[in-house]
Amino acid sequence: MASLAEIARTQTELDPDDLAHLQRFIGSWGLVADLCFSDLLLFVPTDADGTHFVVAGQVRPTTNQTLYVRDLLGEIADREERPLIARSWRRGEIIEGEVTDPIIRERVRMLCIPLRYRDRTIAVLSRESTPSVGRAAGELERTYQEIFNRFARMIAAGDFPYAREDGESEENLRVGDGCLVLDGAARVSYASPNAVSALHRIGIHVNTEGLRLGELGLDDEPVRTAYAVAAPVTEEIDPRPGVSVLIRCIPLVDAARVTGAVVLLRDVSEIRRRDRLLLSKDATIREIHHRVKNNLQTISSLLRLQGRRMASDEAKAAIGESVRRISSIALVHDILAREAGEDIPFIEVLRPLVRMVEESLSSPDHEVRFTVTGDPGTLPAGVATPMAVVLNELLQNTMDHAFPADADGGRPAGRVRVEMENDGQELVSRVIDDGVGLPEGFSVERTTGLGLSIVRALVTSDLTGTIDMFEPLDGGSGTEVELRVPLDAERPG
């Protein structure tokens, strides 16, 4: 579906300032639709003469059912199909009437409001609803319609949308949340039933009529600021411990003077309580990961101490391998202790993992250079932990077997490249070396070595992926190991 910006660029003669003004209007016109219980359509002329108009915006009310089931954005109408729109555009006046709508083929009551900016009409707002027959409006409907009429006059005068806005709130307040209408002295002249209920929930049970918000026990700073600057103000206040209320004060302006305001309010106490619980839970989870990391590091230190007391070189090597495996898991928990949530930017695990293997296994007479290319993206902890162990084993296996010692105990220099790709559906990892290559008849499925057995088990079982080992596709010497791990698969546990 085309956006306002696309429609303006391709079908109208609006300049950037006009477009910005209309975008501000569309950002706040949900309130206007709620107040008039009707669909609102924004018509912009496609030519300077106003012979054709394009629907550049559409909003449905939350206080009533919609008249138009389908979206009308991008629809073109000429002045014969929409005569009231053309007349309002041409005269720059608010015009009301009934016409047969060309889209739904029914009688529609329209109120056409010229939307002015910089002393000229740049669009026409149309309130469209079914004609009312013999039904008396209640107090709420009469009040809202009166407020809508005041907004209509502000739109026609160029006072709405406001030149200064307080920015979008985290929660999008609507009239149905609770609405207070204030007079020119900032006293309550009307409170909707939902507003009364919201006040009751936060412990305010007095009759609000004729009182200011401060006299009700609420912080009236948002109201005083809105009246002073003639622009909307949104703030969250805490009238008492454990109670939070989101307030948005929208001033009503007439001839550059604030004559009243609409105050929307919502009790967000339960939402904030849940937010605090989530923050507390998140902090607890991070602390757990931090303690797990510390415990793993303690185990690694104990194993190193034990390794130093070993007389057997084979035992020392086995303990060294265990230390590196534990350290690779500790890296993941270290990231989880610092990051929010259970997803990890895996590059922050991969780079220190490669550096750890390089520092522990490389030496001046056995210099192997490691490089990392590509972006593994963000991985769930359930994928990141086994992947860290798998890559640690593959890098260690490469150091042990791709660059074997010669008869004099020396080892050749070499290069190892780790490539990562993540398209959102599958993680592809490649470990490529320029060593001696695979032995004759080698098969990863039949290998009995501990390291590759761990890799095979983790990749095929925990990660539900595949592993292949072959000569590099570029024709050089060495070995290429390719891992493919689906990221949306169901995993054990």
UniProtKB/TrEMBL annotation:
It catalyses: ATP + protein L-histidine = ADP + protein N-phospho-L-histidine. Pfam families: GAF_PdtaS, HATPase_c, HisKA_2. Residues 287-489 form the Histidine kinase domain. Gene3D superfamilies: GAF domain (3.30.450.280), Histidine kinase-like ATPase, C-terminal domain (3.30.565.10), PAS domain (3.30.450.20). It is an enzyme of class 2 (transferase). It comes from the Bacteria. This is histidine kinase. It comes from Iamia majanohamensis. The lineage of its organism: Bacteria, Bacillati, Actinomycetota, Acidimicrobiia, Acidimicrobiales.
